[in-house]
Design goal:
This protein is mainly α and 258 residues long. The longest helix is centred in the N-terminal third of the chain and has 32 residues.
């Protein structure tokens, strides 16, 4: 609900700031991150399915991507549990590190938001990571992150074809409902249908729901799960996340944002 209502606050300026070049760059970053993350995991001797789970989780949207990809590739429950356990803990660390790193690199607000959207796992986490850079950073971060989330559909379909399994013919499962709602509300805002009072109220409600979502993420994180994930999973996930960060900075530099 927080993400869907955030669509009401998306301005035309934020959309123009992202632009087609950034959208194409996001798709390229996701593709390279999935391929690179898989290669890193395999280099550490992890099984193929585990390597796919780690690569997809880091590259797209953390636990949600792992849960979506697992049945498509026929992953074992133990592999899914290990991948989710570590990304849940790592995701919290990324939320804390991204704002500090963006400030250290001297990124402008829009670049800081895009960096958060390109690297942080969950959508509420992106909002929290981008918030220190201001409202514009939050809007851009949400747009960039939602573009990554939309990539989950094509990635699942591609993995289903590669593994010679049906990627759940129901495409509605591969595109989260909140993405559709976000886009619909953003379109209504752009069309001028929504009155200013509604825009303001939606923004306030979205803020409080985001706070609630972040609290829930914190309550659902067990630091002890990190110890159960295993050193190879920890190393592979950490290095693949580092790769994603480097790809994100490379894209921002290429586009002249950083």
């Amino acid at each position: 609900m927080a993400v869907a209502l955030l669509g009401v606050g998306v301005s035309a300026d934020a959309l123009a700031a992202v632009g087609p070049a950034m959208l194409a760059g996001i798709a390229l970053v996701v593709a390279l991150s999935v391929a690179g993350g898989y290669a890193i995991a395999r280099a550490f001797g992890l099984p193929r399915r585990m390597a796919v789970l780690i690569a997809a989780g880091n590259s797209i949207c953390g636990n949600s991507a792992i849960a979506a990809v697992a049945p498509v590739i026929g992953a074992e429950p133990d592999d899914v549990a290990s991948a989710i356990a570590f990304t849940a803990v790592l995701g919290v660390g990324v939320v804390l590190a991204v704002p500090a790193l963006a400030a250290w690199l001297g990124l402008a607000p829009l670049a800081a938001g895009a960096f958060a959207g390109l690297t942080v796992y969950a959508v509420p986490q992106v909002l929290a990571a981008a918030a220190p850079a201001g409202a514009a950073a939050v809007q851009v971060g949400a747009l960039v992150k939602l573009t990554r989330v939309v990539a989950l559909g094509p990635v699942c379909l591609a993995l289903g074809l590669l593994s010679r399994r049906r990627a759940h013919a129901d495409l509605r499962r591969l595109v989260p409902w909140f993405v559709v709602a976000f886009l619909a509300l953003a379109a209504l805002r752009a069309a001028g249908v929504l009155p200013p009072a509604a825009v303001h109220a939606a923004g306030q409600i979205s803020t409080w729901l985001t706070i609630a979502a972040m609290a829930a993420l914190g309550l659902g994180t067990d630091v002890r799960a990190l110890l159960a994930a295993g050193p190879r999973v920890v190393a592979a996930a950490s290095l693949s996340l580092l790769l994603l960060g480097l790809l994100a900075l490379g894209l921002l530099t290429l586009l002249g944002w950083a």
